[in-house]
Q: What sequence folds into this?
């Protein structure tokens, strides 16, 4: 098999049988003509499938090492497909510091008595084992976690999940298959918000669920069609275009994030830096084993007495916006933005203080980014 960069760069290339276009075209047609009423063609109606969605699914499944994938209208829709496959009353174990939107969905389903959801400190294997002690149907992991970048041992957690009777799903949004391949470590399926690193240009919203079980893959595909949650043609085109440069983007942005994290660690205006590529991070050794880089997200807290709003207002190269993984640097305050849907109690349990600042490091020159942070720290 060729290397990651090769497979990514050639995603959807030379795949146009009609005109031999080098780059696969966008098929916006909602319907496809049949030769005969009873003869179902490969493509029939765009809710069910369209060529660009198929190419994107094939690409991400290949990069993650799965048997196939279903591309959805958002990352949350991919998570919902996974939940859809569980019986009423199923027991789900998920991280206490799961993405805010994931917690919102799980909490609402649990409140409606659809599922029994338990939150575990998944990075602490003893706590995870205790949370799985009564058995479980699904173990959902997210590593590194967002925004504190806690690292969960995927191989060990998968072993614990399987022993408890659960399928193991990993939300790999923060690293992408360029930096971490959960299926190689024992997970059963992978979820992505393709909105983030996979597309990488902050110009579409989408998700993907990668499976290792062909039967479940068919069921997910069936539900995505039945509920109409598949990825649209234009967005599939953008995601496929973005994924071609995924390897080089993820490596360069991760290297820049490490430099910034090291710099912030030395800055007297900064009280805490969370980044798994720093030796002081509790997950450093584990991240070095299971990841091919620390990732693009760094979070920090300013020293007491400094003002977070003054810091944010002084930044010129990081835009205050709640996403991550794009070529442009973004900054956010998770407690007020991405994780605002959580109750204050749930945020406290997850360790997300109101002073926590999350940086998503882009492709700008790292010297310029460092200078910008220094200026904003001095202004705080
Ligand atoms: C953004 C995000 C999601 C949700 O994805 P959407 O595309 O916004 O629906 C899920 N998990 C993580 C870790 C995310 O960052």
A:
């Amino acid at each position: 098999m060729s290397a990651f960069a090769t497979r990514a760069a050639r995603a959807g290339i030379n795949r146009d049988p009609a005109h031999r276009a080098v780059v696969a075209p966008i098929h916006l047609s909602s319907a496809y003509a049949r030769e005969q009423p009873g003869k179902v063609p490969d493509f029939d109606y765009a809710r069910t499938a369209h060529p660009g969605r198929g190419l994107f699914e094939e690409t991400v499944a290949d990069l993650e090492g799965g048997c196939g994938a279903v591309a959805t209208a958002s990352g949350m829709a991919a998570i919902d497909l996974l939940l859809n496959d569980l019986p009423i009353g199923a027991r789900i174990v998920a991280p206490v510091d799961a993405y805010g939107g994931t917690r919102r969905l799980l909490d609402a389903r649990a409140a409606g008595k659809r599922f029994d959801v338990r939150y575990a400190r998944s990075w602490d294997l003893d706590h995870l084992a205790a949370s799985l002690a009564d058995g479980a149907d699904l173990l959902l992991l997210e590593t590194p976690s967002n925004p504190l970048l806690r690292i969960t041992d995927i191989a060990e957690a998968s072993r614990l999940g399987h022993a408890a009777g659960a399928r193991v799903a990993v939300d790999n949004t923060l690293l992408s298959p360029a930096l971490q391949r959960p299926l190689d470590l024992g997970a059963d399926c992978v979820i992505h918000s393709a909105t983030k690193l996979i597309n990488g240009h902050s110009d579409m919203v989408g998700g993907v669920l990668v499976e290792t079980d062909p039967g479940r893959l068919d069921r997910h595909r069936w539900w995505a069609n039945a509920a109409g949650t598949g990825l649209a043609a234009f967005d599939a085109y953008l995601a496929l275009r973005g994924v071609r440069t995924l390897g080089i983007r993820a490596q360069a942005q991760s290297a820049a994030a490490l430099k910034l994290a090291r710099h912030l660690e030395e800055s007297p205006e900064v009280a805490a830096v969370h980044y798994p590529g720093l030796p002081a991070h509790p997950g450093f050794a584990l991240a070095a084993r299971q990841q091919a880089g620390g990732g693009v997200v760094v979070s920090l807290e300013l020293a007491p007495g400094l003002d977070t709003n003054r810091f944010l207002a002084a930044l010129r190269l990081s835009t205050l916006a709640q996403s991550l993984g794009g070529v442009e640097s973004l900054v956010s305050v998770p407690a007020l933005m991405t994780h605002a849907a959580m109750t204050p109690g749930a945020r406290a349990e997850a360790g997300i203080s109101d002073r926590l600042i999350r940086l998503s490091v882009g492709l700008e020159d790292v010297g310029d980014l460092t200078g910008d942070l220094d200026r904003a720290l001095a202004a705080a």
Observations:
- The mean pLDDT is 96.
- Residues 12-243 form a domain with the Aspartate Aminotransferase; domain 2 fold (CATH 3.40.640.10).
- Residues 246-266 form the longest helix (21 residues).
- The CA atoms of residues 87 and 115 lie 8 Å apart.
